[in-house]
Amino acid sequence: MTMTATTLSKSSECIELENRYGAHNYHPLDVVISRAEGVFVWDAEGNRYMDFLAAYSAVNQGHCHPRILQALVEQSKRVALTSRAFRNDQLGLFYQQLCELSGFAKVLPMNTGAEAVETAIKAARKWAYTVKGVPRNQAKILVFSDNFHGRTTTIVGFSSEDQYKDGFGPFTPGFEILPYGDVAAVEAAMDENVAAILVEPIQGEGGILIPEDGFLRRLREITDDYNALLMLDEIQSGLGRTGKMFAYEHEEIRPDVVIIGKALSGGFYPVSAILADGEVMGVFRPGDHGSTYGGNPVAAAVARAALDVITEEGLVERSAELGAYFIERLRAIDSAHVAEIRGRGLWIGIELHAEAGGARRFCEALMERGLLCKETHDHVIRIAPPLTIDRSQIDWALDQITDVLQLA
Ligand SMILES: *Cc1c(COP(=O)(O)O)cnc(C)c1O
Question: Burial code of 210-239, b = ≥16 C-beta within 10 A, e = fewer?
Fold first, then answer.
């Protein structure tokens, strides 16, 4: 069949085109989303689903939030992209808002999360050579097993997931992978050449893995002892997901570098950034680093609106309250398949026993019932709805999950 129509109304036709012409680097559930609003998405046939993945927390503010949409449209009409060779009238306001929100002195904007992680790596290395005094090209960055920091060649080079790196080498040296949560391993790996520890406060892609209480605090003490930087990848955990603005607040520490992205734009446009104080950010001189789209006026305007929505709609508090409720109700479900329910805020993993036959079939059954979840690492059903979800919507979802967990 040849298709010439510019708009395809049928899901099966969309799927066929994607499969025929697209690279097959994803294995999505066969739901073709053509419209979205708040916690809901609709497929090409008009069936409604509740979105429990929220674009990996990029749409914490809910799909197509009208206020962020308005910022996008209005700014796009005025000026979309300048050139970083010139200034724009949105960037300073964006920086100010983010610094006041986070308590950090400086911002460096990029686009995707992976680019912001790369930026943090560059900052740490240059800081190590120019401030700490590590000999040239000797800087080490400690990372953790089951990490997810993005997909560039440098970043996948320090992944512990074989598939992420298989066939993509050779990789960038200078990274050491330690068991996540293992303080003794960190202590043993520290030496004067360690520039930084790069860590997710909770590992989302790893399966909502929450380290023991005190892990981040110990990392803070150890990095202080060795004059190394503590860099937190809060691209998924930050901006309200865990019931705090930043997940590190659960441990009452202050990192040296925070990496954010995803919900920084509420799903409209890729915006990422690193936050740091002057000593670290000061290593960047004009010409050291940059990005054509990083810090463009649309990105800045969209991010400002996205941050406004998080604070003004109380999404952080909402995540804390409703997350606690959700976890409690999930733990009360009687199902032989469930090994563990764990979570912080509206970020919850249902870990299934190996005998349950994998999480994907449960996700497919949930999709049949109008609830979109995604399996993570084979045995975990990940729950991460937009933070705008309300209690009755959670109750409806709980009914679906309860039923599906009774599957043979
Ligand atoms: C999504 C994610 C990234 C990568 O972000 P992209 O925008 O996909 O490049 C990095 N770190 C964490 C923790 C993430 O969740």
Answer: bbeeebbebbbebbeebebbbbbbbbbbbb
Is 114's C-beta closer than 6 angstroms to any atom of ligand 1? Answer: yes
For residue 63 the two structure tokens come to: 């799909």
> What confidence tier does 1 reach under pLDDT thresholds 50, 70, 90?
very low
User: Do 5-61+314-407 and 66-312 come out as alike in CATH topology?
Assistant: no
pLDDT of residue 189: 98
pTM: 0.96
Q: What is the CA radius of gyration of the chain?
A: 22
Does the annotation count 262 as an active-site position? yes
How far apart CA 338 and CA 352 sit, in angstroms, is: 5
**CB contact at 8 A, 8 and 2:** no
Token output for 310: 């998080």
DSSP 246-289: SGGGGGT---SEEEE-GGGGTTSS--EEEEE-HHHHTT--TTSS
Contact criterion met (CB below 8 Å) for 146 and 160: yes
For the chain, what are the domain ranges?
5-61+314-407, 66-312
Cis peptide before 170 (omega within 30 of 0): yes
- Least Cα distance to 299 among 266, 258, 276 occurs for 266
The residue whose CA has the least distance to atom 11 of ligand 1 is 149
On whether the 5-61+314-407 domain is CATH 3.30.420.40, my answer is: no
Catalytic (active site) residue 94: no
Report the alpha-carbon distance of residue 84 to residue 108 in Å, rounded.
12
- List pLDDT tens digits, range 98-139: 999 999 999 999 999 999 999 999 999 999 999 999 999 999
Which amino acid, 334?
A: D
The pLDDT of residue 255 is above 50? yes
Cα first-last separation, the chain: 39
CA of 204 from ligand 1 middle (Å) equals: 10
Question: Hey, what are 156's tokens?
Answer: 């996948």
Cα-to-centroid distance, 265 and ligand 1 (Å):
13
CA distances from 275 to 108, 117, 213, 395 (A): 7, 11, 24, 37
Residue 238 parent element (H or E): none
Q: What CATH fold (topology level) applies to the domain 66-312? A: Aspartate Aminotransferase; domain 2 (3.40.640)
Average pLDDT over residues 266-287: 97
**Among this protein's residues, is 233 annotated catalytic?**
yes
Cα–Cα distance measured from residue 265 to residue 299, given in angstroms and rounded to the nearest whole number = 7
